[in-house]
Amino acid sequence: MDKQKIVKQTVKDRLLHALIEFAGKKDWSTLTATELIEKSGVARASFYRNFKSVEEIIEYGIQEMARCYHGGKTFSEEDFHSREVMLYKFTFYQKYADLILAFHRAKVSTTLLDVITDCEIEAFGDMPVHSISRYELYFFSGAFYNMMLCWLESGAKETPEAMADEFLRIVGSR
């Protein structure tokens, strides 16, 4: 990566980190670019060179997380009944717990649930509207999201392995 790309990435990451620091302390809808600029220590011009608004930083955080999720997969097909897939999911979201909890505290968690559901639609394909089986995908996405969020909020005391096994036990796959 060339020097200019590294600098640009550093600016984006510093702004995202500053945004995360505001989670739970200040409603993101009232957060200003000036507050983020001051918290992150980046120049105002750097902010506007990379983002038009605070909302774009939120979107950037979601896109980065989705990119990392897909880039780290070692399997080609996602299956909520697979221990390998569930272990990957719990391990991944534990790694990004700060970002997940920031979205939750900022009350933009439905956006995150949409991302998780979209990942499943991407893996399985969008099921026909007239097919009753399409509800399974939404059930598993919602069940996983809520279990993962509860786990992260309680400090992720259990291992990702234990969580994967428990999820599969609850949904009757183990």
UniProtKB/TrEMBL annotation:
<protein>
    <submittedName>
        <fullName>TetR family transcriptional regulator</fullName>
    </submittedName>
</protein>
<dbReference type="GO" id="GO:0003677">
    <property type="term" value="F:DNA binding"/>
</dbReference>
<dbReference type="InterPro" id="IPR050624">
    <property type="entry name" value="HTH-type_Tx_Regulator"/>
</dbReference>
<dbReference type="Pfam" id="PF14278">
    <property type="entry name" value="TetR_C_8"/>
</dbReference>
<dbReference type="InterPro" id="IPR009057">
    <property type="entry name" value="Homeodomain-like_sf"/>
</dbReference>
<feature type="domain" description="HTH tetR-type">
    <location>
        <begin position="9"/>
        <end position="69"/>
    </location>
</feature>
<dbReference type="InterPro" id="IPR001647">
    <property type="entry name" value="HTH_TetR"/>
</dbReference>
<feature type="DNA-binding region" description="H-T-H motif">
    <location>
        <begin position="32"/>
        <end position="51"/>
    </location>
</feature>
<dbReference type="InterPro" id="IPR039532">
    <property type="entry name" value="TetR_C_Firmicutes"/>
</dbReference>
<keyword id="KW-0238">DNA-binding</keyword>
